[in-house]
Specification:
- 27% of the residues lie in helices and 20% in strands.
- The chain is α+β, with helices and mostly antiparallel strands and 332 residues long.
- The protein has a single domain (7-291), classed as Jelly Rolls, CATH 2.60.120.330.
- Strands 1-2-3-11-8-13-6-5-4 form a nine-stranded mixed beta sheet. Strands 7-12-9-10 form a four-stranded antiparallel beta sheet.
């Protein structure tokens, strides 16, 4: 039974004030982490998503991220494409260059993906054409990693694992080259009806492969989550982070925690179509060598689910990702 006292639409809201980044590692109490973890698991087991308020992430930093990404995405396409990589998941993704849902046209958005290799190779970031991008990206990734570790401790304690830091031990290598966690800076430009294809979405329906995703979004809206067989709007909640569980956490929890499909649709209201939508997603993944049981497969048109068919019962998370990457243009 869902016990949250507050909701945004169908999404439970958890107050993380006693465990957020405003509380130091030395001051945070085990009891508070445990209690918050129970609320997170309760929400994840019901709808797969939860809003986290009083999380300790400074809103001024998010405004700085928005400013610098606006400057980058408004550059000429040729400049941005200098940071496109065909050999890795790192870098710029142009408009209509991904497709997460086979039955739909390509996703109507741009993005920039930043993985753990950036801490050894910061020159991969577009500092020369967008001053400030490098330092802000590194700072934001570090903060997301710190908060993720706190969240994983909460969940791990509340799951009553033999070792209370079990989940963090599966994520020892965050911000390194042998962990596929990444920050994805999404930019949804105003809708141009002259180039928008019929049936287009901004982000196709999918489930996340990893453990948890931290989503920072503006108030434009458009995100929907599958619930009871239909897609339901997720209303933005100011100063809150939207968390969702991925397939890896579903597996680790023995199926207790739900990994739910979600998508971003084009707004029906013309006034919202004229707005730019910003979102920043930090995908926390297990280390490459962590063993995962692939999630149950449903026979539908969602790209990552279809690409997980015929997999062995157990594999490393790296193998799971590689299998998916090889069958889709949308690795995250």
């Amino acid at each position: 039974m869902l016990k949250s006292k507050q909701f945004a639409g169908i999404i439970p809201v958890v107050d993380y004030k006693l465990c957020g980044l405003d509380v130091s590692d030395q001051q945070v109490k085990r009891e508070d982490l445990y209690n918050a973890g129970k609320e997170l698991i309760d929400a994840f087991s019901a709808v797969g998503f939860v809003y986290l308020t009083n999380n300790g992430v400074d809103s001024s930093l998010l405004q700085e991220i928005r400013d610098v990404t606006d400057r980058f995405f408004n550059l000429e396409v040729a400049l941005k494409e200098r940071y496109t990589s065909k050999k890795s998941i790192f870098g710029y993704i142009g408009l209509n260059k991904e497709n997460l849902e086979k039955a739909k046209p390509d996703d109507f958005k741009e993005a920039f993906r930043i993985d753990g290799t950036v801490f050894k190779h910061p020159e991969k970031l577009p500092e020369d054409i967008c001053p400030g991008f490098r330092n802000l990206s590194l700072k934001f990734m570090t903060i997301c990693s710190r908060l993720t570790e706190r969240i994983l401790d909460s969940i791990s304690m509340a799951m009553d694992f033999k070792e209370e830091d079990s989940l963090n031990k599966c994520h020892n290598l965050l911000q390194t080259e042998i962990n596929s966690s990444l920050l994805r800076l999404n930019y949804y430009a105003p809708v141009d009806q002259n180039i928008l294809k019929p049936g287009s979405v901004r982000l196709g329906a999918h489930r996340d492969l990893g453990t948890v995703t931290l989503l920072f979004q503006d108030n434009v809206g458009g995100l929907q989550v599958e619930h009871n067989g239909k897609y339901v709007d997720v209303p933005p909640l100011q100063n809150a982070i939207l968390l969702n569980a991925g397939d890896a956490l579903h597996s680790i929890s023995g199926g207790l925690i739900m990994s739910k499909k979600h998508r971003v649709v084009v707004p029906q209201e013309e006034v919202k179509q004229r707005l730019t939508r910003h979102s920043y997603a930090f995908f926390a993944d297990p280390d490459d060598d962590v063993m995962i049981n692939p999630p149950s497969i449903q026979n539908d048109e969602t790209t990552n689910e279809a690409s997980l068919k015929d997999l062995p019962n157990s594999m490393t998370f790296k193998q799971l990702c590689t299998n998916w990457y090889s069958k889709t243009r949308a690795p995250k």
